[in-house]
Here is the input.
Amino acid sequence: MVIAVASGKGGTGKTTIAVSLAKTLAGLGVRLSFLDCDVEAPDADIYLKPSPEQRKSVEILIPEVDPSRCSGCGRCAEVCQYNAIVVFGNHPLVLPQLCHGCGSCSLTCPERAISEIPRPIGFLERGTTSDGIDFSRGVLSIGEPLAVPVISHLKQWHDHAEEEVVIIDAPPGTSCPVVESVRGAGFVILVTEPTPFGLHDLRLTVRLTEELKIPRGVIINRDGIGNDEVDRYCLANDLPILMRIPFEREIGAGIAQGKSLVEIDPSYIDRFLALYNRLEVLAASNGKVGG
Amino acid sequence: MKIAISSTIGKINEPISERFGRCKYFLIFDSECRKWDTKRNPAESARGGAGSQVVQFLCDNGVRAVISGQFGPNAYTALAAAGMQAYRASSGTPEELVERLLEGELQQVDVGSGSERHY
Here is the structure.
């Protein structure tokens, strides 16, 4: 089963939850993979400390124009949906950072003057943790605007077995990188905090999971602060509240030292195991309802 | 020579637009016949690459020099490729700025130096 951990709002505790669930299952001998898809700020490795074993560059294909063949007709600039080519006189100019690598320009060039050349935008890393988790992460290079290709390459590279448990740590927000991260998951855990900000962004993420038709449940982190509107929203919208993690100094101090919840307080092992069992039930029953 | 100035409301006696790629209008002055022309910016709400689209549009309209408040990274690259002169001005009206440009009082931007980027 693929479990994605997401949240609209940043800093709600996605990585804390993802890592704690992973450590719980790995401790019980479950075969497990962890994908850090938060490629703009990947940091799950700080908790999990994998030994780096493999590294791979992520490239997208961008156009290169052969000036001796180009007639300057401008078809390439017309078909580009991302404004990545402009033509001055008879000379096309490629703007690499706008290019999404779709290949339309090279397909439509009547002179076959466009070839595609790889441009690196980030890299992937893979390694194993001391408790046996198959860990991988994507890293988008600084200054690069396209997170999605790094995430899709990471998910393709991973190629997990059907029976394996895969935990995906998604980026915050509700835009393309989040969609790419949670797509194909059997369940999405939505981490929020009980504040007006947490609720605002939770609503957006719930709509995203509805759009993608993925079953989901909510974890309320920093429980006890803010107000009860997240609770009321979950109740009114039939969203299961899977866990509540209290706002406690001990937890904050432990996380500040790079520890997961199960290391800070071992009683969380049972809670995360119960959570996992519940996810399996929720994902299975939703699959039946959805036909 | 045709000179284009970014504008918010499309009038030659009103302040220029600070933005190049996403301004609303361009006021184009032809220094030979001393006439003004107003064009809507077709790239005003482009998803990305507004600056380079604007340079393409202005180039197709015969413009050889531009005056604006700020030029984005794609505009820089395109201005350099199109061989267009760029001048930065933080205030003033198109009418005044054109005269200042023709008298050599405006500072030319070195578009080949690479860009300031907006993140």
User: Anything to note?
Assistant: The interface with chain A takes residues 43, 46-50, 52-53, 55-56, 59, 73-74, 77-78, 81-83, 117 of chain B (CB under 8 Å). Chain B has one domain: 2-102. The domain at 2-102 of chain B is CATH 3.30.420.130 (Nucleotidyltransferase; domain 5). The radius of gyration of chain B is 13 Å.
